[in-house]
Design brief:
With 752 residues, this protein is an alpha+beta fold. It has four domains: 187 residues, Jelly Rolls (Sandwich), CATH 2.60.120.260; 111 residues, Jelly Rolls (Sandwich), CATH 2.60.120.260; 342 residues, Glycosyltransferase (Alpha/alpha barrel); 77 residues, Sandwich (Maltose phosphorylase, domain 3), CATH 2.60.420. The chain is built from 14 helices and 37 strands. The strands form nine sheets. Strands 11, 12, 15, 16, 17, 18, 21, 22, 23 and 24 form a ten-stranded mixed β-sheet that branches. A five-stranded antiparallel β-sheet has the order 5-4-7-2-10. α7 packs parallel to α9. The longest helix is centred in the C-terminal third of the chain and has 23 residues. The termini are far apart.
């Protein structure tokens, strides 16, 4: 942890369009030999890009990201040894609003944490003889204007290349016209080290098509719904203004901007008259398409590149099979996670929202931790969950960081209280990390969050012992709900909430056992038993669950709420409902992650496959038939006639329904953890649905586990790869098992 000493939080003493440049000149101490190390630590409210002698201090952008600023502001440390020499140099930073000072939460205002971006930085240089020199932000720094004339995460960035900033981060001579800075009163106790993944540029996509729309507008298609921005290269007369507006879809052959709501999602560039390269690093957009206006002459593909931006995550899980539609679905899940894992796990990356909705990640965490190494990413987010909960009387908020509590739209409304699935994220996400990585530290760090959630909700239970009181999102976005009323699900909210709470109580009791917290284990085992008894007494009759819809059966089966006899009846009823519905999806956020698991675990694998492979709306493959390249928020975000869903809430990049990938990995692919961290694995592929081959792999903490199977006439050949030291169990479709201790090839009779 850095010792900040006299370093001060500073802001420019003028507005400078909320995008100032700040700098100081550093003269290295002489007589101490060569520089042996140089470490720069920086953070603040807003976002920054740092430079040493004109060179970027790191590859990251939008740093230091978004945290619960009231209590936690993350320090980013950089090794800048290679950038510091013997000669004087400029230490400079470009600042912008970011999350702290920009618009958030769907409202026209923002600046919830700061009205101007600020910075605190400390450079520690160590010389060959051990001498240390410290340079830190303070009253002696200077500030001046940048070429950014406006910036906002929702609305975009404007850049005027005519503003001369030549040499601002390299010229050690005084800057004409620059002013000073203001030192702010600041509690450095809010600063915390950050070791998680940073937001970086990942790749670039060239335009796939440029054309003129029916209304005469110039449109660009990058072929993939992505998150980031467009880098533009142009040579045009000075003062030429070029605008780029972004959107995820087309509607009636024009840019489909209605889902953006109030977000302008527009970047504007004013040319210098020379060769200009514009890259709006103070914002980000969710888009596949762009509308370009003001371009001088004919727009060509070499002038534009879409820059893909998200947290630096390592891909660890892969899936592929003989069905191209399923492969595209899986690819869509991957791109949905990439776009929404930008510093915090957001619901969507494009409209006036982009918030860390807890229910979305609660549903998706198992799939997320298979596809990418998310240990550091979600661990950091959970630290925000913990601090938010501790300041909300045990309530895990709807979004983390909790901007909704600060937003005026909640004025006059009751304060947020616990709600199932969303608040259950405080339990389910740490458990998903435990299953994926087997690191008991993840459980220990979040055990307080788990118990606080359960203890608070216990005060909300009705006299019947059910969580059937208060506000619930419940089975949010059930496809049976009308576009303007996403709450109107088939599943009774009390059934959904009580089932989810039971799962949380079970997981918390298991966590207590792992941690050796015997009293807590007994308490939460008893808590779970009471919930199970109440659930069955009030909601279950002869295997039928109250409200008799797919979600309630999926939850009751998956969470183990039913007796063996009732489980079989419920499984048959779930299959019956799925069949009667033409195998189309009839679940929302709560039921969707579990419905296929519930079917396949109760002997209805064929029905599960038919649901997965259904192409009529609502289904997982319907968006694929419509050309989707990410997961949609609604099953019918785009209607069959090519018009956008009429609801006021529609996104084309929401990962929650992509939770189905978990079933694809475990059931089609066949890779399941028998021990947390995959020290022991269950290999149990279950071919079906006409799929003739599948290949699945996962880089576990112990090495790569891989399964590949293919059908050949009357048999299935399965190739299993296990890392050294990892043992496993191979389970045949008939339930028989075989111990595995090394890589193997197994041959099964179809139908055996």
């Amino acid at each position: 942890m850095v010792v900040w000493g006299d370093a001060a939080l500073i802001e420019s003493d003028q507005d400078y369009a909320h995008a100032p440049l700040v700098r100081t000149v550093v003269t290295p101490d002489s007589g101490h030999g060569a520089v042996s190390s140089a470490t720069l630590t920086a953070t603040g409210l807003g976002v920054f890009e740092g430079f040493v002698d004109g060179q970027p201090i790191g590859p990251d952008v939008l740093s230091p990201g978004w945290s619960s600023y009231q209590w936690r502001i993350r320090e980013y440390a950089y090794d800048v040894t290679a950038l510091v020499g013997e000669s004087p140099f400029v230490l400079g930073f470009s600042l912008a609003k970011g999350w702290a000072g920009g618009r958030l939460g769907g409202q026209q205002h923002g600046a919830f944490w700061t009205t101007k971006p600020s910075l605190i930085a400390r450079l520690e240089i160590t010389y060959a003889d051990g001498h240390q020199q410290v340079v830190a932000t303070g009253a002696d720094w200077q500030s001046g204007p940048s070429q950014t004339t406006s910036n906002d995460l929702y609305d975009g960035q404007s850049i005027d290349a005519r503003i001369d900033v030549t040499g601002w981060n390299t010229d050690v001579t005084p800057r004409d016209g620059w002013t000073g800075v203001t030192v702010l009163d600041f509690d450095k106790g809010r600063l915390v080290p950050y070791s998680g993944p940073r937001v970086v540029r990942h790749e670039e996509l060239a335009p796939q098509k440029i054309w003129t729309s029916p209304s005469g507008r110039t449109l660009v298609d990058f072929g993939q719904n992505l998150v980031g921005w467009i880098r533009l290269s142009v040579n045009a007369p000075a003062g030429t203004t070029i605008s780029i507006r972004h959107a995820e879809v087309l509607e009636h052959d024009e840019l489909g901007t209605r889902p953006l709501r109030t977000a302008k999602a527009t970047d504007t560039y004013t040319t210098s008259g020379g060769d200009d390269v514009f890259e709006p690093t103070k914002t980000f957009h969710g888009f596949r398409y762009a509308e370009v206006s003001g371009w001088p002459g004919e727009l060509t593909a070499d002038a534009l590149r879409a820059v893909v931006v998200h947290s630096q995550l390592r891909r660890i899980g892969h899936f592929e099979c003989s069905d191209p539609m399923l492969n595209q679905l899986h690819k869509n899940v991957v791109w949905g996670q990439r776009g929404n894992f930008l510093d915090v796990p957001t619901d969507c990356p494009q409209r006036d929202e982009r918030l860390g909705w807890t229910g979305d990640i609660a549903a998706f965490a198992p799939a997320a931790s298979y596809l990418y190494d998310v240990k550091g990413f979600l661990g950091e987010w959970l630290a925000n969950v913990d601090v938010e909960q501790s300041h909300h009387d045990g309530v895990v908020p709807f979004v983390v960081p909790d901007v909704l509590s600060l937003d005026t739209w909640r004025a006059g409304r009751p304060p947020q209280n616990s709600t199932c699935l969303w608040s259950d994220a405080g339990v389910w996400v740490p458990w998903a990390l435990w299953q994926a990585y087997g690191d008991v530290a993840d459980l220990r760090a979040n055990f307080g969050t788990m118990t606080a959630h359960l203890d608070h909700v216990e005060t909300l239970l009705s006299p019947n012992g059910l969580w059937d009181t208060g506000f619930q999102f419940a089975d949010w976005l059930d496809p049976n709900a009308p576009p303007d009323d996403p709450f109107k699900a088939l599943a009774d909210p009390g059934v959904v909430a009580t089932a989810c709470l039971y799962e949380s109580a079970q997981l918390t009791a298991r966590t207590a056992a792992i941690l050796g917290e015997t009293e807590a284990q007994a308490r939460y085992e008893a808590y779970a038993a009471r919930l199970k008894d109440a659930f069955n007494a009030h909601y279950v009759t002869g295997g039928r669950v109250h409200s008799d819809c797919p979600t309630v059966y999926a939850l009751a089966i998956s969470f183990g709420l039913l007796s063996a006899d009732d489980q079989a009846i419920a499984g048959d009823r779930l299959a019956e409902l799925a069949t009667a519905n033409g195998f189309r999806v009839a679940t929302g956020f709560a039921g969707t992650p579990f419905v296929l698991h519930a079917l396949s675990s109760t002997g209805h694998l064929d029905v599960a496959y038919k649901m997965l492979l259904e192409r009529e709306c609502p289904s997982w493959l319907y968006p694929v038939t419509m050309g989707a390249t990410t997961i949609w928020e609604r099953w019918d975000s785009m209607l069959a006639d090519g018009t956008i869903n009429p609801g006021q809430m529609t996104s084309f990049n929401h990962y929650a329904f992509g939770a189905v990938a978990d079933w694809m990995h475990k059931v089609i692919g066949g890779i399941n953890p028998l021990e947390p961290g995959y020290g022991r694995v269950l290999i149990a592929p279950r071919p079906g649905g006409g799929i003739t081959w599948a290949s699945t792999s996962l880089d576990t903490p112990h090495g790569t586990v891989a399964v590949a199977w293919r059908t050949e006439e009357d048999r299935v050949t399965v190739d299993v790869t296990l890392p050294e030291g990892v043992t496993g169990v191979f389970r045949n479709p008939d339930g028989t098992e075989k111990e595995l201790s090394a890589s193997s090839q197994l041959v099964l009779q179809i139908g055996a």
